[in-house]
Amino acid sequence: MAELEKSDVIKNLLNNLIDISGRKTTRGHAIFTLERVIKQLEDKYAFLTNVKIKDTRYIEDDDTISVMSDINVVNSSDMGLAIQDIITTMDTSLGEDAGHFFIKELRRNLSDEYVSSMDDMGVDLSLLQLEREVRNLEKSISRKTE
To answer: Considering the entire predicted model, what is its pTM?
Structure first.
């Protein structure tokens, strides 16, 4: 099996984030939120300028996500850190709209090939879900003690 290009991995991930978020809110809100997340992270990860998101709900035969091939030369560990930040920032930005098992659902929607590629980049979706649950538990406990 040929190794996936980073551009394919990031495009597939972002499309899945929009699909999952769009079912919980609206597709327009999901696209807007993801676009804002990518812009916010561009300062930290300059290579994210190679990712473009546009609202294509009213345009036929056009991709919502376009990723330039320049992103394929990015160091795998840097790409992994960016992917983790995209997922956690999107989850945080959506707040309660993301749902309790947002990351678990994302993992379920990605094919094994993409999950494996992300694992190789240092992205552990199960660990991200666990960290999310711990953060939510800490929030819940701190609210009860106030």
So the answer is: 0.88
- Please list, residue by residue across 40-70, b when 16 or more beta carbons sit within 10 angstroms of its beta carbon and e when fewer do: ebeeebebbebbebeeeeeeeeeebbebeee
Q: Is 96 exposed, middle or buried (0-12, 13-18, 19+ CB in 10 A)?
A: exposed
Quote the tokens at residue 75: 């160091």
- Which SS3 state, helix, strand or coil, does residue 66 take? strand
Which residue type sits at 85?
D
In order along the chain (146 residues), what is the average pLDDT of each group of 10 residues?
Answer: 85 95 89 94 96 77 85 95 95 80 91 95 93 86 82
| CA atoms 122, 120, 20, 68: torsion sign | positive
CB 13 within 8 A of CB 110: yes
Angle at alpha carbon of residue 35, lines to 30 and 37, rounded to 5°:
95
**DSSP assignment of 68-133:** -GGGGGS-HHHHHHHHHHHHHHHHHHHGGGG-TTHHHHHHHHS-HHHHHHHHHTT--HHHHHHHHH
Longest dimension (CA), the chain: 54
Report the candidate in 3, 21, 19, 16 with the shortest Cα–Cα distance to residue 98: 21
